Amino acid sequence: YRRLRARETRLSEFNQTEIKAMLGSYTKVLFVRDPFHRLIATFLQGMGISPSFSSFVQEVLDSGMHDSSAAWKPLVSLCRPCLVQYDYVVMFGFLRQELGHLLRRAGLPAGSLLPELTDSQVQWTYRWLSEQMFSELSAQQKQRLSHFYRWDLAAFPFSGSFLSD
């Protein structure tokens, strides 16, 4: 799209006609991940300065929606899935299967382009980490996290999420 070549521009800076034209000219792919897993990954990558997962979660909850980092901000607020009609939604944990399908649909050789992904090991590891880290949280933190991510949980099928319970 002509204006995108000049500089990096946020979608919200365009008018509705331009947005519709741009989005109609692209294949739109949204990669989604369980919000609790995103919190764990952010904490483990050291993006929070908290000494414990529980205190990190408290920082996230205290920051609220307005001051939150994109690393843990709800996906619905970042990607606007109700406004943008994505062509594909790829779930973390099923990357090998879904990326292969996506590459084949794009006419690309799926096998040679995909990195070695072991989805079942990733799922097992995150299940174990989730159990450990969820047990560190107070009942109030669990409830507030579920509320903080309520729209993500409603928009995407995170059936095994600890925040859905």
TrEMBL record:
- PANTHER family under this entry? CARBOHYDRATE SULFOTRANSFERASE
Regarding the membrane, this protein is recorded as: Single-pass type II membrane protein
Q: EC top class, in one word?
A: transferase
Give its E.C. classification number: 2.8.2.-
The cellular component terms of Gene Ontology attached to this UniProt record, alphabetical and capped at eight, are: Golgi membrane
A GO molecular function annotation here is:
sulfotransferase activity
Please report which protein family the annotation says this sequence is part of. Belongs to the sulfotransferase 2 family.
Protein name, UniProt field: Carbohydrate sulfotransferase
| Localization, UniProt | Golgi apparatus membrane
Which Pfam family, an example, fits this chain? Answer: Sulfotransfer_2
For this UniProt record, give its keywords in alphabetical order, as a comma-separated list: Carbohydrate metabolism, Glycoprotein, Golgi apparatus, Membrane, Signal-anchor, Transferase, Transmembrane, Transmembrane helix
Single GO BP term: dermatan sulfate proteoglycan metabolic process
Q: Which InterPro entries match?
A: Carb_sulfotrans_8-10 (IPR018011), Sulfotransferase (IPR005331)
The record lists the organism as Prunella fulvescens (Brown accentor)
